[in-house]
Protein: IclR family transcriptional regulator
Amino acid sequence: MSERAAVPGAQVVGRVGRLLRLVGSNPAGATTTWLAREAGLTRPTAHRLLASLAAEGLLDTDPQSGDWVLGTELYLLGSIAASRFSFEELARPSIRRLAEASGESAFYSIRQGSETVCLLREEGSFPIRSFVLREGVRFPLGVASAGLAMMAFLPAPEQESYLARWSEHAGRFAEGHTERVVRQELEQTRLRGYSVNPGLVLEGSYGMGAAVFDGNGNPVGAVSFTGIEPRFRPERRGLLGKLLMEEAHRISLRLQGSRER
Structure:
């Protein structure tokens, strides 16, 4: 019996956490049917949990569509929790410089267990954008440019633990991010120092990323660009990669300095 199954109520907590994350990844709202399918629940079970969360103010329904959205209680809790973290101070100056220097949309993402989650976004001056990534979007580790950048510098046994069950781990992204392709991209990332995602999430939408490291050398975050394919031609990638690695290094130094104080 797993530890989660052995603890009374732990399964319910896991389901609730999954539903909250799914709603959070869809700012415009999510239907009960979609949430049930993505969470692996029956529709009645999902609806019962969602209604309970709404009663506590953690979720709400959009007045026009009726879809589930995050509630005011989560905003209040998040505001309090924000004081413990310094992502704005840590990474906002870097992604702002990246957006200004490149004209592309720039992002800061962190590792959260087996996923990456985007926390910050800065728009560049180039008028055509890719909207694959935005604040709150989660990907399995190893998927998209930030996830590739972080996974590439994990210890080899930890990488293999994900690759050994890659289809299960990557889920709906496994078709574009096949194990063979991901292994190749991870190797190239280690050689270059930055990742390139050549339209694997969405055809025509490219991404590049560079990992941020803590004081123990663990990849804990990443800066990245996304944009349309013509903006990421091979002759420009060297410049973009250099910009990413410089800012990733700056954030790593600030992160390590803040932990030492």
